[in-house]
Amino acid sequence: MKKNVAIVGYGGQGGWHAGHALRSDVVSLAGVYDIKPERNEIARSNGIKAYDSFEAVLADESVDIVVCATPNDVHRDIVVRALEAGKNVVCEKPVALTLEDFDAMCEAAKKSGKLFTVHQNRRWDVDYLAIKSLIESGEIGETINIESRVHGSRGIPSDWRCHKPYGGGMILDWGVHLIDQMLLLIPEKIKKIYCETTNITTDEVDDGMHLMLTFESGKRATVEVGTYNFIYMPRFYMQCKTGSAMIEDWQKNCKVAKMKAWNEKEVIPVQTAAGITKTMAPRDEITLDTYEIDRPTSDVHNFYRNLVLAIDGVEEPIVKLHQVRRVLQVMLACFESAEMGKAIIYENGL
After folding, report:
1. In whole angstroms, how far apart are CA 193 and each of 100, 175, 176, 180, 330?
2. Are 110 and 127 within one domain?
3. Cα torsion angle, 303, 308, 310, 315, sign
4. Would residue 315 be called left, alpha or beta, if left means φ above 0 and alpha means ψ between -120 and 50 degrees?
5. pLDDT tens digits for range 125-152
6. Does residue 323 belong to any structural domain of this protein?
7. pLDDT per residue over 256-286, tens digit each?
8. Across the strands, what pairs with 145?
9. How many angstroms separate the CA atoms of 61 and 59, rounded?
10. Cβ 194 vs Cβ 344: under 8 Å
11. Against a cut of 0.85, is the pTM above it?
């Protein structure tokens, strides 16, 4: 039997949730509510029920799930009140701006006995899944370094995302996705966090971030978000013990170079701008295989399918609260590191 979903916040992401709910095989759209009357009118014009108030959403006994798709600064109140009203809750990311707010949400979920989770939808991105599959296969050996980047050239959207009180900025926007992915790709404790931010198009929030993570085994990761990049760097680049992999952007296949032999009988020097080099000479097909991996199949609506099964006690939630809390800890450390201009060291790991 389908679960009924009510969406609080009918902006871009709320509209995304509504569209998926209308086509879903596991949930039905009960309605939406937005603090802006004009957005409720847009919903009604689209044939969607719009509640007159948030209280009306909570009072609707047919609603099984409340989706919080509002600006970041008001998540806590909506989530806690919905849980206290006996609703299961999905919150958009970033779930909170402080650990105190997040812990209050978790405590409300514990007291209510209802499911609370976070919509980390980019766990279903095919570029991430391709890198994840390659790591799990062991095809090119143990991971040494992973670089994950998202670049654009239009600055920050001119809405609440460019204002600090609402939780704007790129660390909390794209950073939350890339950090979440990276912590799943390298499931180890973090020993060191160093982050730099940029303010090219605005002084109020970060419009770019460059994060470097060092893990307990020595593995390294780079997470970078840029909004003033007119030539993009690869979406993913990975070094492993017996090869490398690269995904240029999320529409491309994963390119793999797998080493067959370390030594060559004779390395032919190559001409560079003002000299020759053997060190940087390209490898030949005798020692290296190059090929592409097809893009994996993925359905982001599996988030909702898992959600319904988790509510019914059949499956564990894919997005777990301890994972969400750790991502929030890393984001808060990013702000701290950038402000201090130095790395944060964790003696016992994070």
Report:
1. 21, 14, 15, 15, 8
2. no
3. negative
4. beta
5. 999 999 999 999 999 999 999 999 999 9
6. no
7. 999 988 887 777 777 777 787 777 778 888 8
8. 220, 239
9. 6
10. yes
11. yes
**Amino acid residing at 112:** S
What lies within 8 Å, CB to CB, of 12 at 6+ separation is none
Cα 335 to Cα 71, 175, 288, 332, distances in angstroms: 19, 12, 42, 5
Residue 158's pLDDT is what? 75
| Same domain, residue pair 53 and 148 | no
**127 and 42 in one domain?**
no
Q: Is the pLDDT of residue 219 over 80?
A: yes
Start-to-end CA span in the chain (Å): 41
- The reply to whether 167 and 262 lie within a common domain is yes
Q: What is the mean pLDDT of the segment spanning 325-336?
A: 98
CA pair distance 194, 29, nearest whole angstrom: 43
Question: Which neighbouring-strand residues pair with 175?
Answer: none
CA dist 213 and 195 (Å) reads 9
Of 79, 66, 73, 71, give the one whose Cα is nearest residue 96.
73
CATH number at residue 32: 3.40.50.720
Q: Give the Cβ contact number of residue 98 at 10 Å.
A: 11
